[in-house]
Specification:
Elements: H1 3-15, H2 20-29, E1 32-35, E2 39-42, H3 45-49, E3 55-56, H4 62-73, E4 78-82, H5 86-95, E5 100-102, E6 107-111, E7 119-126, H6 132-144, E8 147-152, H7 160-164, H8 167-172, E9 175-180, H9 186-191, E10 198-202, H10 214-221, E11 228-230, H11 236-250
Helix pairs in contact: 4-5, 6-11
């Protein structure tokens, strides 16, 4: 239940269209809702955190994702599920025609009345094309949370001139998400060029000694550049959420 729904509920009570008992019953149900024996939906998360509960689609069954999205749509104008395979998305979308799916980001989502003036200030940078799925998870997450996102892809350190051509865009951002695999050097390079916070995202892209992203993660954690925070391996969603919160704190509009 978001602020508008609570406001509408109180307005309905004030106008006499619903009873005091109905209001109490609705508010009792508001904190969470049980779905079978497998989920308890946090319906107050938007009030506390600014965005509704997000579904982690991986390891959930097709029917579980479908039912949880149906329930959340009754309470929120934006609903999203991350790590959803194309097959799972097709199953759910056959049953809910108002959903959209981004295959690169692996995000299935529902959105009513997108924000007309998304807040600028976020840029997502990827080292290589192979890192784009994680970068897109971060970018789309931030967009669904009301931000305008610049995408700068395939500008890794093996061809540094590509990155430098985007320097004005990088230096204008409120917060940067920098996504890289292999040796994970790109966030350190970017960190020496900008004054804004950087969220580094290590990916599992790389050859054997990359250890499925562990080498990249450790390299980013040991960066000598200032102002870099690191999320978990392949966690584009976490980076998008953090960037959105930073961006909304700045309130910068140009």
């Amino acid at each position: 239940m978001d602020e508008k729904q609570i406001s509408d509920l109180l307005g309905a009570f004030q106008s006499g269209s619903i009873s005091r008992e109905d209001v109490i019953e609705r508010l009792k149900e508001a904190p969470f809702e049980s779905v079978g024996d497998y989920a308890r939906l946090d319906l107050h998360r938007e009030l506390r955190n600014g965005f509704p509960e997000v579904i982690f689609g991986q390891n959930k069954t097709n029917d579980q994702v479908n039912e949880i999205m149906l329930r959340l749509k009754q309470h929120s104008r934006t609903v999203m599920a991350t790590r959803v395979s194309s097959e799972k998305a097709a199953y759910v979308m056959e049953r809910q025609a108002d959903l959209k799916y981004d295959e690169r980001a692996r995000i299935l989502y529902y959105r009513v009345d997108p924000q007309k003036d998304p807040l600028p200030g976020i840029a997502v940078v990827s080292a290589g094309t192979a890192d784009v799925p994680v970068a897109e998870e971060a970018a789309l997450t931030a967009e669904l949370m009301g931000n305008q996102v610049e995408r700068i892809y395939d500008v890794g350190v093996s061809g540094l001139h590509r990155l430098l051509s985007f320097l004005p865009t990088l230096q204008k951002a409120n917060v940067l998400i920098v996504v890289a695999g292999m040796e994970g050097a790109l966030p350190s390079v970017v960190g020496g060029l900008v004054a804004c916070p950087i969220i580094a995202v290590p990916t599992s892209v790389g050859y054997g000694a990359n250890f499925q992203g562990v080498t990249t993660l450790l390299a980013m954690l040991n960066s000598c550049a200032n102002g870099i925070s690191v999320v978990n391996i392949d966690n584009g969603y976490g980076a998008g959420v953090t960037a959105s919160r930073i961006n909304h704190l700045t309130g910068k509009t140009s």
